[in-house]
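Box S2. Input/output pair 1.
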Amino acid sequence: MLVRLENPGLLSRVIDIISELVTEVRIKVNNEGLSITAMDPANVSMVRLILPKSSFSVFEVGEETLGINLDNFKKILKRSSSMSSLVLEKKDNLLNIQIHDRIKRNFNLSLIEIESEEKNMPEIEFSSVVRLNSSDLIASVEDCIVVADACSFIIKDGKFIIEAKGLNSAMSEFSGDEAEISAENCKSRYSLEYLQKFIKGAKLSEKTILKFANDHPLRVDIRNDFLELYFILAPRVETED
């Protein structure tokens, strides 16, 4: 396996985001591209990253599965710059990482055995789909973090509402003018601890797609020309704050 990326900064950012949910992952490489699918230790959230073959300037692979410690991997990736290119090459039980800029630098990362069961993204049906500006989603979630530890995603009469209630409250309301809403009336609550991590991924794309239903898992879809990033979050089913 030998692949080359001309924009390692974006990979570094997304690996940093994933490392807040999981510490070890299987990186799968095949003729279609590179992917990671993992569930956090609490079994509350899942993440899937896809880097298609077209994202690489060099892509010479067979079928590979690489066990990686993300803390170590992200530290190496952060040594790259916006002017660097990145070469990943499997050599025996090592991942050789080369950073090419004014000089060529070499790192070797030991591959590890991942003991946890391999996970796949579940097939879930959603009654509501909302496509909105990522900056609006980020601001709304950050508003909710100020007042509570969970927030509700609500569809009511064609409007999308993000609301948090504790001793204090915060609410953002979107009509069809501010977001693309294809949805049925529903309400589901989600942990802001996890949403705070997800919205870091939303910064990678101008738009974010939210899929949910009544007391149902949330799926967050983030895509740009370089990658696809998906999160799934279990709902909080409990009494009102």
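Box S3. Input/output pair 2.
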Amino acid sequence: MKSVLTPEELEAAIRQVGAERYHDKHPFHRLLHGGKLNKGQVQAWALNRYCYQAGVPRKDAALMSRALDRELRREWLHRILDHDGSGGEEGGIERWLVLTDALGLDRAYVVSMEGALPATRFAVEAYVNFVRERTLLEAVASSLTELFAPSIHRERISGMLESYAFVGERAMQYFRRRLDQANRDADFALAYVKQHARTPEEQAAAVAAVHFKCNVLWAQLDALHHAYVTPGLLPPGAFRPAGP
């Protein structure tokens, strides 16, 4: 970027990243949502995705620890509570474990993350470290893949319920809850980025942060596809499905 974009142009540039690079276009998701995976492959996806779910409140806590703006901290705090739960609210991580329970995975094994693919763990830690080490603007901008999340959640709910007899309505509650939460979170983060990315360099960094986050999500699906679909090469210690 050589000149300052208007807020509307910056938003368009961010949305273009999603249009080109969001992980709803990955072949693994097409298989998952189209009912083309067996139960073991769906288990592997849910187990590995737990690593990401567990990493989200960690990255949010890292962002909050760097924010000097009290209003930003107050706004960001609910993201941690959304995932970890608070009071009578079970939280997103618990709702994800309801999904893995429904898929027949041992909860203690899922939480241990022992069976997760190495690439999954590396991708999640790369995201946490990005938020911890880059500018606050980039950290906030990296969350903006939430702009594109509701559509993939709707596709996942309908596709999985229609395609897999072993997935019931209760297992889909994580995604149903995120339909509202993701929109709320994305609206705040987008407004923040449009207000604080004032120079060409800052705007380019914000767009690059969304690009990076798309890569984090894409890399996790690359690893799943390589290990559980084609060529089906499982690294030592990775989860091994019992069968179709």
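Caption for Box S3: The radius of gyration is 18 Å. The chain has a mean pLDDT of 95.
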